[in-house]
Automatic annotation (TrEMBL):
GO molecular function, one term: transmembrane transporter activity
Any one annotated GO CC term: membrane
Transport in keyword set: yes
Annotated transmembrane regions: 35-57, 64-82, 102-120, 160-183, 214-234, 267-285, 291-314, 326-351, 371-389, 396-415
Pfam families named in the record: AA_permease_2
This protein's name: Amino acid transporter
Keyword Transmembrane helix tagged: yes
Source species of the chain: Rhizoctonia solani
First-listed, main subcellular location of the protein, grouped into a coarse class: membrane
Superkingdom of origin: Eukaryota
Amino acid sequence: MACIASIDWGCAVQVTAAATIGSGGNFVATTGQTYGIYLAILFTHAVVCSLATEVLARLQSVYVILNLILFFGVLIALPAATPSEFMNTASFALGDFTNLSTYPAGFAYILSWLAPVWTIGKSRLDFSFDCGLLTICIGAYDSCVHISEEASNAAVAVPWAIIGAIGISGILGTAMNIAITFCMGTDLEAIVNSDIGQPLAVILFNSFGQKATLGIWSVVVLTQWGMGSSIVLATSRQVFAFSRDGAMPFSNTLYCMNSYTKTPVNTVWFSVFIAALLGLLAFAGEAAIAAIFSLSVIGLYIAYSIPIGARFLFKGHNYKPGPFNLGAFGLPVAIVAIVFMTFVNVVFLFPTDLAPAVADMNYGTSSFRKILAFKCLVSVVFLFPTELAPAVADMNYAVVVLGGVMIGCLIWYWFPKYGGVNWFEGPVVTVDVLPQTSHNGDTLMATPEISEERRVRIANADEELLASLGYKQEFKRTFTPFEVFGVAFSIISLVP
């Protein structure tokens, strides 16, 4: 849900950037106006994601096309249209490093390349401009996992969709960023501090002028909107799955399939409602809403790390690899992944700037290492602010939000008499157990309406695998492998 808030807030800011460009800089949106646009975007996403699965599946192809239009528009048109005064030399585009933060250059570099694609904005670009290498940390690439119950041949299509989306986005995104760095000029402070509020919009405006920029920017906004639509889709399915097991508050209400669209409409609107509440943090200041951006990464990486670690830490379970697996590479990849995600989570708990009192200190190597060690300790262990006396505007509220969520979850589970520990028994089996039915050595299950004569084997392989986990088929499987790829690709996106 933090991802929904992050993406849709970014889309709202992009809309206000278009208004600023269209007005010649005379209009600068207030927080209230931006929040109103944000609510409108959330509403449209809720309406679209309440539609039938067939419609949602076809939309993924549209989102892929929008990303490709944006890519070729930037890669081809931007260098052709950029005036000579904004064209950069190879030495600047590929080798210059400009630090606009109060952090030392090395740590500012780390903060810049850890910025997630969907939340790159002023709050993160302030750290530094590194034109020698731009590496981007991408999250939510597991989004297509959450629609696996709606996908054909999900056991193979979903993992290949993740790999394909990451690989293609990495190649195209790198090419796009190289084109941008060659065409953005050298006045980086002007790009970051423009009233337009979006560095990419400033770069496009300098190259194309007002009208052409609005045309290209409309594609950027539509691409971002598609990203938000896909993340609402994935989140609603995840909430549905948790509600099916009774793990969510109001599970009895949320676990409901609309009789007309055959989709979990209740979980769609619930997800959007929570995202709308998270957006209220914008009224507490830029640092507060930036906490949602950080939390979207922190929350995802915590969720990724737990099952990856559990897979290798608990050897007693009867783990059987599926048709797609990493084989001998599984453990090394898992170690690298967990180490990297832990490092990312620590970094994202830092404020966007050092507190003024600390900024005046001498940043020798020894001093900074002590500060860094102290920050990590405070952020990870105690979830306190990362400075002893930070200014309100410089705080990173991700630790507050993350701590609040964790405390809420602990209360929800351990609360005396009413907490989940008193009634939650794990995943709820929604089909009958059939000991005489097996596939690849696994005991299978089938929906109660299947007669005894037909219980020897479930014809559909996807339903068979789902039944082996104890769940009946409740969604229509209309997502093709390409459309599954489209979900992951549209969320990773090429929007810089």
